[in-house]
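In this section we walk through a basic example: taking a raw amino acid sequence and producing a predicted 3D structure, encoded as discrete structure tokens. The instruction is simple. Fold the sequence below.
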Amino acid sequence: MPELPEVQTTVDGLRHTVIGRRIIDAWSSYDSPYFKGSETIKDPVYFKRFKKEVLGKKIIAAERRAKNILIGLSGGLTILVHMKMTGHLLYGAYSFDKKNAKDPWQGVAPAGLRDPFNRHIRFLLQLDNGKSLALSDMRKFGKVTALLTSDMHRSAHLRDIGPEPLDGSFTFERFIERLNRKPHGKVKQVIMDQSIIAGIGNIYADESLWRAGIHPAERVKNITSAKLRSLFLAMKKVLSGGIALGGSSTSDYRNIHGEMGTSQEAHRAYQRTGEKCTKPRCGGTIRRMTIGTRGTHYCDKHQLLSNKR
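The resulting token sequence is shown next.
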């Protein structure tokens, strides 16, 4: 699932490409009866209303809140996109092939749009410059809906999300306050809880805990203040680094031009199972375990689990 760095990379791309463009048409193949009344474009009844609301509107802003993309439109409307597990937004020229019932939209330019991971177009906005903004979503889990801009942060989609970890106002003291809401929780699960801290998922949790030297299954209440400070600093460094490297493309994430990010090249724990730990003078090996339902990667030497319960 795209996490904070991937979503921020997408938002940065939108700011450079679609601001000022007007929406002239909208298309969606999310037409499942299982989503009836869900207020997302997966409901064909809702999509008709969505299309009517967005046509003719100008794109005036692009923001991120946690893992949500917020595309501000003229007229006081915002399109919220959550890319979920396999979704990513793409910008470029597309042609429609009506003979291809499964994936009718074919990327023409830039070349990256022809990447196999970019072929699963489920939603598309045609813009007034001949280009389109499209959502490729292989597993069809993505969410797109329209909200009143004035009310969006009070909506069910955003109201229960925790603070942004890269905001200047997110101090160490606030970090501790958030973690202490779940003192008996396993630290990896707690920092991934979107109601505690926004935007962190499996990849950047593993990388932050590796850098801080904390076992991912350690209970929050058992972690020393010094270790928590290390985690606080590691989290900010790892997330900022992920953005600087254009996000992680360990799976199917691509930026809006259809290109892979390079953050995966800097991973020290995530998906490094069996490799020697790269921490200087460590000598450990990266192991894999399951916490909750998530594959978790850690060093068996410098990320030790305490005996406390």
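Looking at the output, two observations stand out. The mean pLDDT is 95. Residues 113 and 264 are 21 Å apart (CA to CA). In the next section we compare this with other chains.
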